[in-house]
Design a protein that fits this description.
The complex is a heterodimer of chains A (about 150) and B (about 25). Chain A contains 6 helices and 4 strands. Chain A has about 150 residues and is α+β, with helices and mostly antiparallel strands. In chain A, the strands form 2 sheets. Chain A has a two-stranded parallel sheet with strand order 1-2. The chains are: A alpha+beta (about 150), B alpha+beta (about 25). Chains A and B meet through helix 1, strand 2, strand 3, helix 2 and helix 5 of A and strand 1 and helix 1 of B. Strand 3 of chain A pairs antiparallel with strand 1 of chain B, so a sheet runs across the interface.
Chain lengths: ~150, ~25
């Protein structure tokens, strides 16, 4: 069950974010774990999980790792860590498209070679789809479809 | 597990992993 709020730091919500919120609302059953997403800019990283007023951590990949360790998702294996880190790095490299493209190729090559866990699928899908949004490159589409097919 | 997760997200990147978790 996911709720969305927009912080005053966001002047205008991008179209992709609006579409994402609509898609989530369509899929949401209205029960289960409650998640509140606050769209906000000007943070040191693009994703912060606030567990309580004094505890938070950064990164979508780290959220997936956390859920794995809490038993919500399949446990991550040692070999997954490198892929989770590569996915994180892919988002961080958005200012250097050439390096980002090289890393996307490497990430796709690696996930084709090893059996992916649920955590890796979630994290790499998100990183590659954001890469696609930014670059309009359709070369990631096959991998995105493969991941969707596994779920 | 906490009752609620509060996540702050920069809308320049979309947290598609949440979408997959609902599917």
């Amino acid at each position: 069950y996911v709720n969305f709020f927009t912080h005053s730091s966001v002047a205008q919500l991008p179209e992709a974010a609006k579409e994402f919120a609509e898609e989530i609302s369509r899929l949401s059953t209205g029960d289960g774990q409650k998640v509140t997403v606050i769209w906000k800019t000007g943070m040191p990283a693009n994703f912060e999980v606030i567990l309580n007023p004094t505890t938070s951590f950064w990164g979508e990949g780290n959220f997936i790792r956390y859920l794995s360790r809490m038993g919500v998702l399949d446990n991550t294996q040692d070999t997954d860590d490198m892929l989770l880190d590569m996915s994180h790095q892919l988002l961080v490299l958005s200012d250097d498209r050439k390096e980002q493209t090289k890393l996307a190729d490497r990430l796709m090559g690696t996930i084709r070679k090893q059996k992916a866990s649920q955590s890796v699928d979630y994290t790499t899908y998100s990183a590659l789809r954001n890469f696609r949004n930014a670059t309009k490159s359709d070369k990631v589409d096959v991998v995105l479809q493969d991941i969707m097919g596994r779920l | 597990l906490p009752d609620e997760y509060v996540i702050a997200v920069d809308p320049a990147t979309i947290p598609y992993s949440l979408l997959l978790m609902l599917q």
